[in-house]
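Continued from yesterday's entry.
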Amino acid sequence: MVNRKRKRRIVIVALLAFVLGTTAFAYAASLTFNGGADAGRAGTGVGKISGYDVNGIHYTLNSADPAQITGVQFALTPDTATTVRAKITGMTTWASCTDGGTSWSCPVAGDALAAVALQVAAAD
């Protein structure tokens, strides 16, 4: 009987230690965001981007070789982005884009036949 009570105490103490240990770890690993306007926006994807709509897409072709794409222009909604990069799938590098007021211009380069989809990464 004494042995059974002792085992029960050990199990209860071990269970209490486990609960306290995991609770302390959960508090140490948590992050809190205030969700205010200063939280910012960011997203990446193909097509519609989390937080932004990409529209008015226009591609520029090389005048000497129209099978080559030399640039892309598009607008972002909402117009709050401060950093934008673009890449056409099938092309190797991301291009830094410049803000032209109502649209962004990106100097992408590559074979138009290899172009599959436009990828845009934007953040404010």
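--- second protein ---
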Amino acid sequence: MKKKPTRLQSSQYILLLESFTEWLQLLNYSVFSIPALSSTVQSFLLYQEATGKIMLAQLMAGDANNFMDLLQNKISNRSGKPLSIGSINKHIQALKLFSKYIRETGRSNVGFALQQLAETRTIPVWLTIAEVQQLYDVIENDLLGVRDKAMLAVYYGCGLRLNEGACLEIKDIDTARKILHVRKGKRYKERFVPIAEKNFEEIKLYLDYARPQLIQEQKHGYIFVDASKGRPMQRQSLYIRIKKLVKKAFNSPSGDGGKQAGTHTLRHSIATHLLQSGMKLERIKEFLGHADLDSTQIYTHIAEGTTPLTIRWKIKNIEP
């Protein structure tokens, strides 16, 4: 069986993909998102070549729909199952960005009429206040322990996403106002997150005491650094560290006491706790950086029927 080409043959498409990637970089898209977006566009251009369209002038609006139909009928080599709705939606997002790029740069006036597929939402897993305390209770009293508490302060206390925490730099912490500046949020939106007093103390201790010792001779501004060479911690390293902490806290074979707990679980947990404590949904939306209230509404299902909590938390109106 003849293998499908994995590299673009059209010189125009090669240059187009390179310039699209540069466009994403100029717009300050996340370094973690750009490869995935570019990869999807490359797959689309390979599809175009396979159908005999080797020039952008041959592009038609329906080509994107045909490509998406192909993806929805595709079986993943890894799982043996069709692509998930979430995966399909990521491809749609990439193609819509590509369509925007070629129109804004005057390369084509073709637009893609693609709509995101509806996803079935499940109630997210979250930890109780007592379970979060268990995480703190198993942290060692050493340099890495100080870093662990700072990580919990960021992912639980400030509700950041995994990528947002990995991208944090020292310049993003306003120590005078106790505000954290998230520069690379989802869909590339910035936001300002207040830091509660206890969390601020944990972050400040890490920055003043542990980080200078861990960073060694390295010179960079990233907040979280690894334990061996002082390099910036990648997303996977941060995720694994939290998972190890969870495993130690709940002492179960799965490492989570029956819960699939990770960094996003901490984000779900603080959102739930804030809602239970009486914070308005609109404020939680701002705190989490959600694009609309629909995303935040899921926490109302968690909080229903639970006992209201008393959390010492103040969130002021944040201005840049």
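Strands lie at 173-174, 179-182, 191-194. The longest helix spans residues 85-104. Will compare against the first tomorrow.
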